[in-house]
C-alpha cells in the first residue's frame, strides 16, 4: 500500500511539473521560471478547530478567521443586516453600472429553506432580484418601514439583490 501511494504521488508530482514547465514556456522562460524571481510564492494557510460547533457557529468562525473585522475611525451601522444566522450576506458593493444602487449577494448556509428579513442601513426605493451581471429581473416588496424586505432563501442557493436607495428628502 505504501509503495502504491508513493507511486501515485510521483505521478501527480510529474504531472504538476509538466504543467509548470508548459506555463513557463508560454511566458518565454526556462522551466524553473515559476519557482524563482517575481513568480516565486510562499504559500501559507491557517486553520482553526471549533469543537462542538453547529453550522452557524462554524460559518461565523470561518468568516472571523478569514475576514477579521477591521476597526475604522468613523462610527457607522451596517449597510445590510439579516435576522437569521443561517442567512449569510457574502458581499455588499456598489452596482457595476455606477447607477448608485447597492448589490448584495447572499445565501442560505445550513441546508434548509429559510425566511429572513434583509434590513438596509438606508431608506429603500426598491429591491430587485437580479442576475449575476446585476440586471434587475423581478421587483420585491419593500416593507412598510422602507428599510427592509422579506426574503425566502433556498438551501445553499446564492441570491443577488439590487437595492435602490430612496432619493434624499429635501
Question: What do these coordinates show?
Answer:
- This protein is α+β, with helices and mostly antiparallel strands.
- The chain has 2 domains: 2-39; 75-165, Immunoglobulin-like, CATH 2.60.40.
- The chain has 2 helices and 8 strands; from the N terminus they run ααββββββββ.
- A hairpin with a 5-residue loop joins β5 and β6 (136-140).
- It is elongated, with a radius of gyration of 23 Å.
- It comes from Streptomyces tremellae.
- Residues 90-161 form the Glycosyl hydrolases family 38 C-terminal domain.
- Pfam families: Glyco_hydro38C2.
- This is Glycosyl hydrolases family 38 C-terminal domain-containing protein.
How are the SSEs placed, and which strands pair?
Layout: H1 2-26, H2 55-66, E1 80-82, E2 87-94, E3 102-108, E4 114-120, E5 124-130, E6 136-140, E7 148-153, E8 158-165
Antiparallel strand pairs: 1-4, 2-3, 3-8, 4-7, 5-6, 5-8
Q: Low-confidence parts lasting 5 or more residues at pLDDT below 50? A: none
Name the CATH class of the largest domain.
Answer: Mainly Beta
**Going across the major beta sheet, what is the strand order?**
2-3-8-5-6
- CATH architecture descriptor name of the largest domain: Sandwich
**Spatial gap, N to C terminus:** 77 Å
Give the C-alpha Rg: 23 Å
Beta-strand portion reads 25-35%
Please tell me the overall pLDDT: 84
Q: Main sheet, how many strands, which sense, barrel?
A: 5 strands, antiparallel
- Cα shape: elongated
Q: Tell me the number of strands.
A: 8
Question: Total domains, how many?
Answer: 2
The helix content, as a percent range, equals 10-25%
SS summary, helix count: 2
